[in-house]
Amino acid sequence: MMKSQWRDKAACRGVDTEVFMPDGRRHFSQKKKRGALSYCTVCPVKQDCLEFAFEHDIKIGFYGGMDGNERRYAKRVWVRKRKAEQME
Ligand code: SF4
Question: What number is the average pLDDT over the span 26-34?
Protein backbone atom coordinates (compact mmCIF):
# COMPACT_ATOMS: atom_id res chain seq x y z
CA MET A 1 0.00 0.00 0.00
CA MET A 2 1.35 3.42 -0.88
CA LYS A 3 2.03 5.68 2.07
CA SER A 4 -1.02 7.93 1.75
CA GLN A 5 -3.57 5.39 0.49
CA TRP A 6 -4.40 4.14 3.96
CA ARG A 7 -6.08 7.46 4.76
CA ASP A 8 -8.81 6.77 2.22
CA LYS A 9 -9.85 3.72 4.23
CA ALA A 10 -9.78 5.41 7.63
CA ALA A 11 -12.86 4.96 9.82
CA CYS A 12 -12.51 8.63 10.80
CA ARG A 13 -12.51 9.93 7.24
CA GLY A 14 -14.63 13.10 7.15
CA VAL A 15 -15.02 13.19 10.93
CA ASP A 16 -14.22 16.45 12.76
CA THR A 17 -10.54 16.22 13.77
CA GLU A 18 -11.49 17.78 17.11
CA VAL A 19 -12.77 14.33 18.13
CA PHE A 20 -9.13 13.14 18.15
CA MET A 21 -7.61 16.09 19.96
CA PRO A 22 -7.16 16.32 23.75
CA ASP A 23 -9.31 18.49 26.00
CA GLY A 24 -6.32 20.09 27.63
CA ARG A 25 -2.75 20.25 26.42
CA ARG A 26 -2.37 16.48 26.36
CA HIS A 27 -5.15 15.15 28.50
CA PHE A 28 -8.07 13.14 27.16
CA SER A 29 -11.15 12.81 29.36
CA GLN A 30 -12.62 9.31 29.47
CA LYS A 31 -15.60 10.57 27.50
CA LYS A 32 -13.41 12.03 24.79
CA LYS A 33 -11.27 8.91 24.70
CA ARG A 34 -14.35 6.73 24.23
CA GLY A 35 -15.45 8.96 21.36
CA ALA A 36 -12.12 8.59 19.54
CA LEU A 37 -11.94 4.87 20.25
CA SER A 38 -15.38 4.32 18.76
CA TYR A 39 -13.72 5.02 15.41
CA CYS A 40 -10.24 3.63 16.00
CA THR A 41 -11.41 0.28 17.36
CA VAL A 42 -13.11 -0.62 14.09
CA CYS A 43 -10.65 1.15 11.81
CA PRO A 44 -9.16 -1.11 9.10
CA VAL A 45 -5.99 1.00 8.86
CA LYS A 46 -5.26 1.34 12.56
CA GLN A 47 -1.73 -0.06 12.24
CA ASP A 48 -0.86 2.27 9.33
CA CYS A 49 -2.16 5.22 11.32
CA LEU A 50 -0.16 4.22 14.38
CA GLU A 51 3.05 3.78 12.39
CA PHE A 52 2.49 7.13 10.68
CA ALA A 53 2.40 8.77 14.12
CA PHE A 54 5.54 6.88 15.16
CA GLU A 55 7.43 7.80 11.99
CA HIS A 56 6.49 11.48 12.24
CA ASP A 57 6.98 11.60 16.00
CA ILE A 58 3.47 12.95 16.56
CA LYS A 59 2.96 13.44 20.26
CA ILE A 60 -0.48 15.05 20.45
CA GLY A 61 -3.83 13.58 19.50
CA PHE A 62 -5.29 10.15 18.93
CA TYR A 63 -3.62 7.96 16.31
CA GLY A 64 -3.96 4.23 15.85
CA GLY A 65 -6.24 3.92 18.85
CA MET A 66 -3.77 5.49 21.27
CA ASP A 67 -3.30 8.88 22.84
CA GLY A 68 0.12 10.52 22.98
CA ASN A 69 1.08 9.00 26.32
CA GLU A 70 0.15 5.50 25.25
CA ARG A 71 2.08 5.91 22.01
CA ARG A 72 5.19 7.06 23.81
CA TYR A 73 5.55 3.62 25.39
CA ALA A 74 4.37 1.71 22.36
CA LYS A 75 6.87 3.54 20.16
CA ARG A 76 9.82 2.23 22.16
CA VAL A 77 8.71 -1.33 21.49
CA TRP A 78 8.08 -0.52 17.83
CA VAL A 79 11.54 1.06 17.37
CA ARG A 80 13.21 -1.96 19.00
CA LYS A 81 11.25 -4.34 16.79
CA ARG A 82 12.17 -2.41 13.65
CA LYS A 83 15.85 -2.41 14.54
CA ALA A 84 15.74 -6.15 15.17
CA GLU A 85 14.05 -6.72 11.80
CA GLN A 86 16.67 -4.61 10.01
CA MET A 87 19.44 -6.74 11.52
CA GLU A 88 17.91 -10.00 10.26
S1 SF4 B 1 -6.88 4.53 13.78
FE2 SF4 B 1 -8.31 6.10 14.49
S3 SF4 B 1 -7.31 8.08 14.08
FE4 SF4 B 1 -6.26 6.50 12.88
S5 SF4 B 1 -7.19 6.52 10.88
FE6 SF4 B 1 -8.25 4.98 12.09
S7 SF4 B 1 -10.00 5.98 13.04
FE8 SF4 B 1 -8.60 7.58 12.30
Answer: 90
Number of folded domains that form the chain: 1
Spacing, Cα 84 to ligand 1 middle (Å): 27
Q: How far is the CA of 12 from the centre of ligand 1 (A)?
A: 6
Overall average pLDDT of the 34-42 stretch: 97
Give residue 83's domain range. 5-87
Closest ligand 1 atom number to CA of residue 20: 3
Residue bearing the CA closest to ligand 1, atom 3: 63
Average the pLDDT over 31-50 and give the result. Answer: 97
- In order of 14, 39, 41, 58, 65, the CA distances from 69 in angstroms are 25, 19, 18, 11, 12
Check whether 1 has a pLDDT greater than 90.
no
Q: Give yes or no for residue 12 CB within 6 A of ligand 1.
A: yes
29-43 average pLDDT score: 96
